[in-house]
Amino acid sequence: MYFLALDLGTTHVKAAVVAADGQIIASHHVRSEAQPTGHGFVYDPEEFWQRAVFVLSRAANEAAVPIAACGITGMAESGLLLDARTLTPRSSIIPWFDRASQRELPTAAELQDPAERFRITGLRLSGKYGLLKILSLQRQGIDLRGSLWLSAVDYIALRLTGRIGTDPTLAARTYLYSLETEDWDHDFIARCLPEVEFPPVIPSGMPIGNCVGGESLCFLRDMPVSICGHDHVVASLAVGDVAGGDVLNSMGTAEVLLGARPAAPLTHRHLSSGLSFGPHVLPGFYHWLGGLSDSGGSIEWLRRILGEPELSYAQLEELLAGVSFEPSGIIYYPFLSGSGAPRPDPYARGAFVGLSRSHTRRDLAKAVLEGVSMQMELIRREALAVMGGHINRILVVGGGVKNRFWLQTKAHVFGCPLTVLSVQEAALVGAALFAGVGSGHLRLADLQAASAALASEEIVPDEHLHKAYSWLLEEGYIKLQQPLREYYGKMARRDLREL
Fold first, then answer.
1. Rounded CA gap, 55 and 93, in Å?
2. Structural domain boundaries, residue 404
3. DSSP state at residue 95
4. How many CB atoms neighbour CB 159 within 10 A?
5. Residue 8 sits in a domain of what CATH number?
6. How far apart are CA 478 and CA 276, in angstroms?
7. Is pLDDT above 90 for 82?
8. What gap in Å lies between CA 274 and CA 263, rounded to an integer?
9. Cα separation of 440 and 428, whole Å?
10. What is the signed CA dihedral for 269, 271, 272, 276, rounded to 10 degrees?
């Protein structure tokens, strides 16, 4: 039995046909870069849809097997406004990383005390969430009357099936969903966005409807289509036993640590961790997440500035070949788009500290990998507290696993083994198999069996190097960033006053 999956990512739209044992038998992807505008960055809804159609068609045609169900996953906070009556777009798709909505932070903070809002939503106030994007669109002149907000995943599901809906993991990334009621926070929405409608929330993985087909998608006609949810949460299904203490470390443009905990009321300790919390696709569990928006993004930025044309990945690896794993002494703060856990700060900025005449491009490349690893170590420490001091395994997936120097550096910084899994596209595999569960063809136990069969490699730290990095982390990385954060906060507030 075979299942089709679609992953709507930040830089790529991907599709794959996956067998019931989790093996990808065909896949295809295209780049889907957001375009700059006078307000920020956007995806064109029609182009986004056409890319989805293209990769679905290519993957299915290459596989040439009967497909039982289709599952969709993708970036959680990206979304758009539609006309609620005609279901035509009123706005472009606004990506999660667009910063135009940062201007709405003071307005959102006045709507409800952010600490109380965290208790309800599991989220700390950030410009990436749907509420602030809608307020930003309103500021830009978009008419909110009779409008409907959908995530990018919901929009593609609508185009495939003609049905409106979302799942809890996507709804929860709007700042408008209540973990207590497991539904939209209707009272809050009535106060702040009375003109806007939101889609019905259906269980993760359950079919939203059957594909209506169309000339280019006739092979999908009448096939059940499921909204499987937030890409990182869905990926955790494909890698291990997150309910039993395994933690997903996904290394892509953004990097996250994600695990699961039994659903329970959130406390001040959860707030102070800097982590975000929300529904897991596993019934009865919340997911916790700590993310670094510019982990792989820092490497992309470095490739652009170190070469003209930009360095290839092979050239970057060649640059690092033979470099000592001893700390470089340069501190890099990977806050090109603000910082997340454990100290969320939308105004934080990136920086290099400690440069000298003797440093080369190689040293800068090494420092970037050290900096993103140290930030992830701070997230790991908070995750340990949330997990009650126990993490079973850190399971590493994503494009970043191709960079061996990065993996080994992170192991030295963490001071614990990393388990690198052979699965190349965990979100696609998770979405495909979870659609199989939702459509009644598979059981959750089948997903667990598929993840247990994955080949893995353990990356082991060196104790001497771990101690050296621990000193740099404590004495440099942690202590020096406070004055920088204060400066960037003052600069941001000045800029906001001048707008």
1. 19
2. 240-422+462-499
3. P
4. 19
5. 3.30.420.40
6. 21
7. yes
8. 18
9. 18
10. 120
Phi, psi of 291 (to 5 degrees): -125, 155
Q: CA–CA distance from 201 to each of 80, 154, 204, 253, 386 (Å)?
A: 17, 11, 9, 28, 28
CB 109 within 8 A of CB 48: no
Contacts 24+ apart (CB under 8 A), 311-314: 313/402, 313/403
Domain boundary among 233, 250, 274: 233
**Dihedral through CA 353, CA 361, CA 252, CA 266, nearest 10?**
-10
Q: Cβ distance 432 to 217 under 8 Å?
A: no
pTM metric for this prediction: 0.90
Q: Which amino acid is at 463?
A: E
- Say how many C-beta atoms besides its own lie within 10 A of residue 377's C-beta: 18
What is the Cα–Cα distance from 14 to 253, expressed in whole angstroms?
15
The residue type found at 24 is I
Question: Can you tell me the distance from the alpha carbon of 249 to that of 236, in angstroms, rounded to the nearest whole number?
Answer: 9
Among residues 395, 383, 392, which one has the least CA distance to residue 451? 395
Task: Check residue 281 and give left, alpha or beta (phi > 0: left; psi -120 to 50: alpha).
Answer: alpha
Edge to edge, what strands does the sheet with 2-8 contain? 24-31, 12-19, 2-8, 69-74, 224-230, 207-210
Encoded amino acid at 477, one letter: Y
- How far is residue 347's CA from residue 335's CA, in Å, rounded to a whole number? 9
pLDDT at 370 (0 to 100) = 97
277: left (phi over 0), alpha (psi -120 to 50) or beta: beta
Report the C-alpha gap between 153 and 167 in whole angstroms: 10
Q: Are 163 and 263 part of one and the same domain?
A: no
Indicate the residue type of 193.
L
Tens digits of per-residue pLDDT, 107-161?
999 999 999 999 999 999 999 999 999 999 999 999 999 999 999 999 999 999 9
211, 233, 255 — which closes off a domain? 233
**C-alpha dihedral, 208 to 44 to 186 to 147, nearest 10°:** -100
> Which positions ≥6 away from 145 have C-beta within 8 Å?
195
Please state the domain count of the chain: 2
The CA angle 53-136-148, to the nearest 5 degrees, is: 50
Considering the domain architecture, whether residues 13 and 162 belong to the same structural domain is answered as: yes
Q: How far apart are CA 478 and CA 343, in angstroms?
A: 11
Is 60:17 a contact under the CB 8 Å cutoff?
Answer: yes
Q: How far apart are CA 238 and CA 432, in angstroms?
A: 10
211 in the same domain as 119:
yes
The Cα–Cα gap between 291 and 254 comes to 7
pLDDT at 419: 96
Rg of the chain, C-alpha, whole Å:
22
